[in-house]
Amino acid sequence: xxxxxxxxxxxxxxxxxxxxxxxxxxxxxxxxxxxxxxxxxxxxxxxxxxxxxxxxxxxxxxxxxxxxxxxxxxxxxxxxxxxxxxxxxxxxxxxxxxxxxxxxxxxxxxxxxxxxxxxxxxxxxxxxxxxxxxxxxxxxxxxxxxxxxxxxxxxxxxxxxxxxxxxxxxxxxxxxxxxxxxxxxxxxxxxxxxxxxxxxxx
Length: 202
Prior knowledge:
Largest sheet: 4 strands, antiparallel
Shape: elongated
Distance between the termini: 26 Å
CATH class of the largest domain: Mainly Beta
Structural class: mainly beta
Helix content: 10-25%
Order of helices and strands: HEEEEEEHEEEEEEEE
Number of strands: 14
Number of domains: 2
Strand order of the largest sheet: 1-12-13-14
Radius of gyration: 19 Å
Strand content: 35-45%
CATH architecture of the largest domain: Sandwich
């Protein structure tokens, strides 16, 4: 039944739930749909480590990376006040500024990043030397962190999992362009066939 619902109402679902270009890629030429029933599963928060690098004569100024929690999407950028760092402009993302000094060491960069992220309401962080560990406060499947141009190393240590009490279904939509996967979405339905959540996985 879910297959029929999604096929009939697919465009309406896109318009209603995926506004602002936040989840659907700008360009795609094919969408493959798959379906499976959900079993009872325990949820888990996404956790990841960020291995920072030192700034070299302003090299980190205006660089950024993005990550998501079940509640928010964040674009984290670095600002060296003497170089007037510029914030990114990404639809659907909240900017988080990390203020550092020119030629800060990797440990100093990590300390500043930890302070900026720990101020957010939906993550918990810690720092050891040049590594910042980030854990979402809430369970849920989210996109892994994506680096734009910091050249930091990002390691997902625990993938986020959305809890389920079973008896529902999930429809996975895989978007491709020229036979290359550009995005994958989950449409989560409850046992009454109501769409309860849309998640972007890739």
